[in-house]
Amino acid sequence: MRLHPLTSLAVAGSTAVITTAAASWPLSLAVIAAAVGLSALGGTLRPLLPAAAAVLVPLCLSLLVLHGLFFPEGVSVLAQWGPARVTTEGLSFALQRAAQLSAAVLALLVFSFSVNVPDLVAALPAKGIQGRVAFVLASTLTLMPAAASRLQRIRQAQEARGLVIRRGLLHRMAAFRLQAVPLVSALVEEAGTRGSALDARGFGSTGPRTSYREVPDRPLERLLRTFLLLAAVVAVAARLWQAGG
Amino acid sequence: MSSPSLTLPSPAPAAARKRRVLEILGALAIAGTYIYLVLNQPADITGGPGSASALIALSGFLVGAILLVVAVLPTLPTSTMVLIPVALVLNIVLGQFVGSTLVPFYLDAIGTVLIAVLAGPAAGAATGALSSIVWSFFNPTVLPFAAGAALIGCLAGLAARYGLFRRFYLAPVAGFLTGIIGGVVSAPVAAFVFGGTSGVATGAIVSAFRSMGDTLLAAITKQALISDPMDKAIVFAAVAVLVYALPRRASLQFPFVRRHRVLAGKAPEQGS
Fold first, then answer.
1. Is there a domain that residue A192 lies in?
2. Between A and B, how many residue pairs show a Cβ–Cβ distance under 8 A?
3. How far is A78 from chain B (nearest CA, A)?
4. Same domain as A127, residue A31
5. What is the nearest CA distance from A108 to chain B, expressed in angstroms?
6. To the nearest whole number, what is the mean pLDDT of chain B?
7. pLDDT of residue B1 exceeding 60
8. Domain count of chain A?
9. Does some domain include residue A50?
10. Rounded CA gap, B48 and B31, in Å?
11. Which of A56, A84, A115 is the last residue of a domain?
12. Is ipTM strictly over 0.85?
């Protein structure tokens, strides 16, 4: 059974919100396990893991160094070198934060790696503000590989003309300029052409739209989405009320 | 190509007023969240993760950023709309590369600043917020910084509007000032939502301040005051190089550039 893209977005988003609001160890670990399991079931684990590692490894390392070594509020000192003190409080704070952030990040990444982008864009209305957001999302996702391959071609062309990236800040800046200027002028030029073409096809008009692509939406899923949104709001409200009261 | 339509009715004043209200509400949500977080200095920041302040920082800044997008996006002409994806690609391609390396900079705003210089503060703010939202597709940790990115875009547009990009040496100065404001506003997000920073190099700087006994918010604000102004000065200088390298035909297609004479050089004829 294939979920409506907005349903899976609601599942991922509410999971991230509820995990942040609950801030409990077992829940964070359970969400991490469930996210990895789901993506393994869906067959997206191979592309997901490097992307998640690229985000989470620097983040968790930074948290561990920051709070593991320097936590002035910590009381029970485990080890000490000069100004650096390893404290139990610091370590547990770092580990809890890391688990909670990993859970939220993984939940959202499982969504973005499993969703079918054309379906997601088709599920958003073609008109008005949501249509414009959908345009930006779809256009960015399709433009990104094109821009990356164009940057590679520019680099090859400049290397053929004798570009060698040497050490030193000035050389690097010159190399950046030689590659970025052609890339940006080409992209802006193309955007201008695309703008006129879109205008000619009624991009800015306010009339009714038809779509070639229909994404089936079951009433049960609509109900589920409402329920998930409510659950997220309730979780946030409960946490705030608990903190205030 | 972005001239107002001669056949379609212009948007009703009621719609314009509604958008203005949304813009003000968005700015108020961001400012209010920041003031609340700094005044209250929630004591529970190190008392346990997932504290209420993380949720307040997240929801306040996100709601503000989304309100700004909703207010600004429908008003942008098509020539600006097609440039937003280009700006996002530039942000992501350059920022993804720098963000995880061992340099305490981010350089993730080149596209946002570029569009702000070409199309004005409103477009810059919308691009900054949208950039964080779309980028979170690949890296969810940038989502909470949407309000800070919107602020950077807005300030860059104002700098361009008042002629700071007409002299090459003024652009890094404007970037430096923008970085101070942007860094101070983004610091509570890093402190309350992440409990630190997302990069190793920036984390090392925060550790240094923490070892002197600073609170987490103070340490991260100081780190932001070291990294952000330099970062934005570099970004503004890079954008100045890029904008002047564009063919004049490409840069002058934007009404904002023509109307406010953003770039140095002979002023084009009005109404061209």
1. yes
2. 205
3. 16
4. no
5. 7
6. 82
7. no
8. 2
9. yes
10. 25
11. A115
12. no
